[in-house]
UniProtKB/TrEMBL annotation:
InterPro entries to which the protein is assigned, alphabetical: Phage_holin_4_2
PANTHER family referenced in this protein's UniProt entry, alphabetically: SLR0284 PROTEIN
Presence of the UniProt keyword Transmembrane in the record: yes
Membrane spanning stretches: 48-68, 88-108, 115-142, 154-176
Stretch list, region Disordered: 14-41
Keywords of the record: Membrane, Transmembrane, Transmembrane helix
One Pfam family hit: Phage_holin_4_2
Name the record gives this protein: Phage holin family protein
Length: 188
């Protein structure tokens, strides 16, 4: 028998014994609604994360259109007429292209990543840049059927744009997620 007493056997220590983990984790609970406590679902932020991704993509396209001569986003006069002025049309155009890239990356890229997994492993992940450039080229091709067009001058421009989008959209997304998206504990 051990000389050390456990908190359950001595009344003074029982009152100070730590409670179970689930009772002490109050920060991951949402305030009571009715009589039961409602926990946040892990997927609560998926819509907000998609909006953050679209905005980050739009900012990335805007900066890269200023920096790279081989990338441009153009809109027709119908877009300007619909949105009222040229500034709103430009912002709307970048948001649309960001949305289109988000949809392409959400629907098509996972399949391409899975199919290209052996090549990606052999190149130690560098082939993912080629995949990202391909997704940008696919986005440019899809946008050619809309009044808002993303133009890329060849594969090298797409590769540079993919590297730039990775950097710019990553920074902007991290900042926006820090501001707008709450984690599973309800903290910003």
């Amino acid at each position: 028998m051990s000389a050390v007493a456990s908190p359950g056997f001595i009344p003074e220590l029982r009152d100070r014994a730590p409670r179970q983990r689930s009772e002490t984790r109050l920060r991951d609970r949402v305030p009571r609604q009715g009589s039961e406590t409602i926990r946040r679902d892990a997927g609560d932020n998926s819509g907000m994360r998609f909006v953050v991704t679209v905005i980050a993509n739009a900012v990335g396209f805007w900066l890269l259109a200023l920096l790279l001569p081989g990338l441009s986003v153009e809109h027709s006069q119908a877009v300007t007429d619909t949105l009222g002025n040229d500034t709103a049309a430009t912002i709307g155009s970048y948001l649309f292209i960001g949305l289109l890239l988000g949809v392409v990356n959400g629907l098509i890229r996972p399949i391409v990543d899975l199919l290209a997994l052996p090549i990606t492993c052999l190149t130690l992940g560098l082939f993912s840049l080629v995949i990202a450039a391909g997704m940008l080229m696919l986005t440019a091709w899809l946008s050619s059927f809309t009044p808002i067009v993303l133009t890329l001058d060849g594969f090298f421009a797409a590769l540079l744009a993919a590297i730039g989008m990775w950097i710019v959209a990553g920074i902007v997304s991290a900042v926006l997620e820090r501001i707008f998206v709450r984690d599973e504990h309800g903290r910003a």
